[in-house]
Write a structure and sequence with these properties.
The protein is about 25% helix and about 30% strand. The strands form two sheets. The chain has a four-stranded antiparallel β-sheet with strand order 2-4-5-6. A two-stranded antiparallel sheet has the order 1-3. The protein has five helices and six strands. It has one domain. With about 130 residues, the protein is an alpha+beta fold. Strand 5 and strand 6 form a beta hairpin.
């Protein structure tokens, strides 16, 4: 997001360190109706994403919603889909381009998450690496 729309300027990034935390997200639009990325997801999955801690975070920097709102390059290119907050900073979790087939998420959906899979045990993530 930062590279595509803002020449990879570091002043767009906000330090938010979250590692090994699975969290819910907050939808900021009706993604069933308004999103190419999430529009075909079952309503039950979208609800689960908003209510259960199923998005695994592992990052140092984010783009805050304040920066997004103040930066015309960002908010004219990307539609905001979901946010989260940590230690007082609200930041972008999911976005997609208005006119192009480009989207991004700030969590790690490729990592097995026991809450998504019925019957998963509490040790399923022990020793897992995001790969």
């Amino acid at each position: 997001m930062n590279l595509i729309t803002n020449e990879d300027r570091l002043d767009t990034l906000t330090k938010v360190e979250i590692y090994g935390e699975s969290r819910p997200l907050e939808w900021v639009t009706d993604v069933k109706r308004d999103s190419r990325l999430f529009g075909d997801f079952p309503a039950s999955t979208l609800q689960l994403m908003a209510e259960e801690p199923v998005q695994l975070h592992a990052h140092d920097y984010t783009i805050s919603t304040e920066t997004y709102q103040e930066n015309a390059n960002l908010n004219s290119f990307f539609k905001l889909l979901a946010v989260d907050s940590h230690e007082g900073t609200e930041f972008i979790i999911a976005e997609e381009a208005y006119k192009y087939p480009i989207a991004g998420v700030m969590h790690h959906p490729e990592t097995q998450n026991i809450r998504v899979f019925p019957g998963g045990d509490d040790q399923a993530l022990v020793g897992k690496v995001n790969s």
